[in-house]
Design goal:
With about 140 residues, the protein is mainly alpha-helical. It has one domain: Arc Repressor Mutant, subunit A. Helix content is about 70%, strand content about 5%. The chain has six helices and two strands, in the order ααααββαα. Strands 1-2 form a two-stranded antiparallel sheet. Strand 1 and strand 2 form a beta hairpin. The longest helix has 24 residues. The protein is globular, with a radius of gyration of 17 Å.
């Protein structure tokens, strides 16, 4: 059996923790946690997702996403609004405060890029490889 240090899953686990440590002080300046930042990235890209759509995009269940959205709402960063066409659906919309955070949010990626010390093309290739790993694991888990 391979040693712990030779396990791909452990390397990914360690990288996840390292990313969280790197992001924490940068996001603290925005008053966001990493999961909240992910929600903001989605909304800065396209405002007005439903809670269900956000959960699917971020791979978060409603038990995790709902309290996170409540905190963003309480902070005045987003607002939750019933869909006019289907009142069962709740849409998540940026407030003016959330929209103003967009520019400061761009600095986050710059800081992480500097911390990684890699080029944008190299980071893109690594992300593409990780996407393939994720997709393969999701496909395998659906077959079980």
């Amino acid at each position: 059996m391979p040693r712990l240090e030779q396990q791909l899953c452990f390397a990914v686990y360690q990288v996840g923790h390292a990313f969280n440590r790197a992001y924490r002080p940068i996001l603290a300046e925005l008053g966001l946690t990493y999961p909240q930042y992910l929600v903001m990235l989605v909304l800065w890209e396209q405002d007005g997702f439903t809670v269900k759509e956000l959960g699917e995009k971020l791979m978060l269940d409603s038990g995790t996403l709902t309290p996170l959205l409540k905190r963003l709402d309480a902070a005045g960063i987003i607002r939750r609004e019933r869909d006019a066409r289907d009142e069962r659906q709740v849409r998540i919309l940026l407030t003016e405060k959330g929209e103003r955070m967009r520019e400061r949010g761009r600095c986050v990626q710059d800081a992480i890029g500097q911390a990684l010390g890699t080029t944008a093309p190299d980071a893109g290739r690594l992300r593409d490889q990780l996407d393939l790993v994720r997709d393969a694991l999701l496909a395998a888990s659906r077959d079980v």
